[in-house]
Amino acid sequence: MTLDDVNSIAIVGAGTMGAGIAGVFARAGYQVRLADVGESLLRGGLERLRRAQQILLDDGALPPDEASAALARIRPLTSLEAACDGVQLLVEAVPEHLPLKLELFARFDRLCPREAMLTSNSSGLSITKMAGATGRPELVAGLHFWNPPHLIPLVEVAKGQCTSEATTALLLELCRGLSRSHEVSCIVQAARRRAAAGVSSAK
Ligand SMILES: NC(=O)c1ccc[n+]([C@@H]2O[C@H](COP(=O)([O-])OP(=O)(O)OC[C@H]3O[C@@H](n4cnc5c(N)ncnc54)[C@H](O)[C@@H]3O)[C@@H](O)[C@H]2O)c1
């Protein structure tokens, strides 16, 4: 897969991070499916996203037509099947609870196209363990956005033990293209350094 092939992105979890990440991708022009387990949670996520965009609008950092176009690119869904169908990239942003993430990564593997990259916004859980719940560990990586994603243009691409160089390179390229007004820094080495020092399980 190349960057030109990436068009549809699923964000799973419409909480603090998921809604913000959905906005980042939608403002960059991607078609976004935003999934959560209930309609009210999705409404809450979209409301947070509108408030975040209002800050950018008030600041003159986002033209009004781009703000409404971004919202129109986001499809809220309670069906994980519909969210995963045909996507090239999935970003998981559910609570920091490993058993939940492992169960979901197994489902993502069954529901997403074979070539789709599966990523987690986890702050510290093992990407290698999440990858092990799938049959495509080379396509699994950490994609760790900082909070709040609409204001902090920093993404950490964290490699698991089996993440391929091609996956890492594509994610770095994709992240560098996310923001026109800010520079996006993508860090792979940080996770490796922490892992080497034995102070983090995010490897
Ligand atoms: N909040 C932060 O400052 C921050 C910063 C960076 C990374 N993170 C990481 O991002 C991830 C999400 O954190 P958050 O603060 O956004 O959590 P949150 O609790 O605000 O949101 C999580 C959302 O996931 C949804 N969810 C739970 N189970 C689900 C399922 N089976 N399918 C779909 N949606 C489901 C919940 O309903 C909720 O809306 C965590 O791994 C966290 O460690 C958080």
Q: Can I get a quick summary?
A:
This protein has 203 residues and is α/β, with parallel strands linked by helices. 43% of the residues lie in helices and 18% in strands. The chain has helices at 16-27, 39-58, 64-72, 80-84, 98-111, 127-132, 165-176, 189-197, and strands spanning 8-12, 31-35, 74-77, 89-92, 117-120, 140-145, 154-159, 185-187.
Characterize the structure shown.
It is a single chain. This protein is α/β, with parallel strands linked by helices. The protein has a single domain (3-197), classed as NAD(P)-binding Rossmann-like Domain (Rossmann fold), CATH 3.40.50. It has 8 helices and 8 strands; from the N terminus they run E-H-E-H-H-E-H-E-H-E-H-E-E-H-E-H. An 8-stranded mixed β-sheet has the order 3-2-1-4-5-6-7-8, with helices on both faces. The longest helix is centred in the N-terminal third of the chain and has 20 residues, at 39-58. Residues 188-193 and 199-203 have low confidence and may be disordered. Bound molecules: nicotinamide-adenine-dinucleotide. Nicotinamide-adenine-dinucleotide (NAD) is lined by residues 12-18, 35-37, 41, 93-96, 104, 121-123, 144, 147.
